[in-house]
């Protein structure tokens, strides 16, 4: 019982990426109902997994998202979630939660569309599952936005993140005609989303803002005067926000050029505070 309470606490206190990890684990446990002991593999129905047959997708359009929460085997799940855990931490160094969700789900959705289109044009018939497209979108977004960011890998040492990105893409391209063609198509499609998101961000275009809805205040009484002191206070607050944003931009630019380790202790604390 204590373990269950601890899991609940970890879920509540974790960020969005950690919540997604918990959700993926829970879905995998529940998907045991679809495990076929004769073939020793999961047999997901076409109303959960994504089919390359566009007619089936038209009947079950939600599979463009649900397939991203299913996994073919434990090692598939473990590798994806470990990768998601580390790369999401790095993603939050540069971006916020709304941007993370935008890249994650749009990466999965776009990869699903490309998978179905490939099935239509090349007469390819198969099902696809996995969160790999979403994770690749997150990974490539970071690698594009801060290509010279250094990662320390065991037994290898420091490596620029763009080197890893090129390696992953090369592997997917080289294995396009392998048994897992659909999976590699999804990886590359997710990468396109991550690349496009980062390039737009560099130009000051934040596509995640399309999901930002501002509530309109319903006022019964008509406003007949303006509070001048309040207006003055508001202008000061805007200046403060702009100053803080300039500090954040300078720190992110420093990370992009020299890596996270080049930051001073004060800069790291400031960035951590503003990302909360």
Automatic annotation (TrEMBL):
Residues in DUF6576 domain copies = 245-271
Q: Is Transmembrane among the key words of this record?
A: yes
**Subcellular compartments:** Membrane
Q: Name one Pfam family in it.
A: Rhomboid
Q: Please give the Gene Ontology molecular function terms for this protein.
A: serine-type endopeptidase activity
Gene Ontology CC: one annotated term = membrane
Q: What coarse category fits the chief subcellular location reported for this protein?
A: membrane
Presence of keyword Protease: yes
| GO terms of biological process kind | proteolysis
How does it sit in the bilayer? Multi-pass membrane protein
Keyword terms of this UniProt record? Hydrolase, Membrane, Protease, Transmembrane, Transmembrane helix
Listed transmembrane segments: 20-38, 75-95, 102-121, 127-149, 161-178
In this chain the Peptidase S54 rhomboid domain maps to 62-201
- According to its UniProt record, which protein family does this protein belong to? Belongs to the peptidase S54 family.
Q: Which PANTHER family match?
A: PRESENILIN-ASSOCIATED RHOMBOID-LIKE PROTEIN, MITOCHONDRIAL, RHOMBOID PROTEASE
Protein name (record): Membrane associated serine protease, rhomboid family
